[in-house]
Amino acid sequence: MIDQTLKLPCGAIIKNRIAKSAMSENMADAGNRPGHKFVNLYDRWSKGGTGLIITGNVMMSSKALGEPHNVVVEEGHECLEGLKEWAKAGTQNGAHLWMQINHPGKQSPKFLSPEPMAPSAIGYESYMKNMFNTPRALTAQEITKTIKGYAYAAKVAKKAGFTGVQIHGAHGYLVSQFLSPLHNQRTDQWGGSLENRMRFVVEIYKTMRSELGNDFPIGIKLNSADFQKGGFSEEESMIVVKTLGDLGMDLIEISGGTYEATAMMDGTKKKDSTKKREAYFLDYCEKVRKLIDTPLLLTGGFRSRDGMDEALQSGACEMIGLARSIAIDPDFPNKLIAGQDVKSQVKPLSSGSKAMDKMIPLEIVWYTEQIHRMGKGKDPKPNASVKMSVLRTMMSLGSAMLKRTRA
Fold first, then answer.
1. Hey, which of 101, 162, 302, 320 would disulfide with 157, CB 3.0 to 4.6 Å?
2. pTM exceeds 0.90
């Protein structure tokens, strides 16, 4: 099943059913431009056999960064030549390369955003308030400008040679904030009812479509739920998915959770049904499939070809999303498609110190280092010391960079 092609609603054809889901590279230069490291990295991934490669988040405003080394695409900062080289590397071997476009909203760390913007002026609770400043509510004019910014970045991506775009609507970033009644408490047309709260993402899609045409792929990454009391629920998520599917979205990636309530980071906390079927959100996809015909990309938990084929054969999804597996073995897709008896090398990480494990986002630090190794033209090191990875990152970037601020 995973070696079959997939035709999207817009007419584009993906050569197989494996997608490299987004992981933040965090290796743009000081001017937030992509360079040769992106070429090296995506050269490896495109040659590794993946049908669809989705980039780490590209920010549509230099005033709204999730990390210091995000790539930015905005008016006056197109970095077109660098994007063209990136696109050329990522579309080798018949691979699709889609740019994931994002705005962090209030999920921009204190050292980057003294006063971030969000749907409402509501700060985070718990440990999050130590990392992110209380935001200012966006004005109606700023919301319109932001929507246009998403579409502008998408237009530049197409011009540079990317074969599609993905809207990041999950994991507590701006689109996710608009969808959540916990974070969006506006009383105008952008808040209140679900229809109003999803107006932001609906308008982003419509504006992108008008700029890109009907034959250019547009996808979105959405939460199945926020897993927070009073937040974006599974029932609301299904309504949003159906609305976007009916509008013509080409591919919907299903994820879940936010940084306040993670859903996928701890691989040890799985339901028995999840362990058996591998995928985290397969049950949700099976429910959504009854509502829409839009192709679904299911990400999170897959480790073997049997698990992937089973999910595809069930009809619950059309594509399988892999991330960490490809960060430590860029040839993993080729091996799967060739029928090799291979399983993902992803495993729970520990530094050997419970205090450090609790304080430091090990998954982010360790896998980012593997990505950076490939960016430098080296091979990843699946058996690299977690403790040494943390120490090296602290020495090179400083402790402020280790905060839970991305995915």
1. 162
2. yes
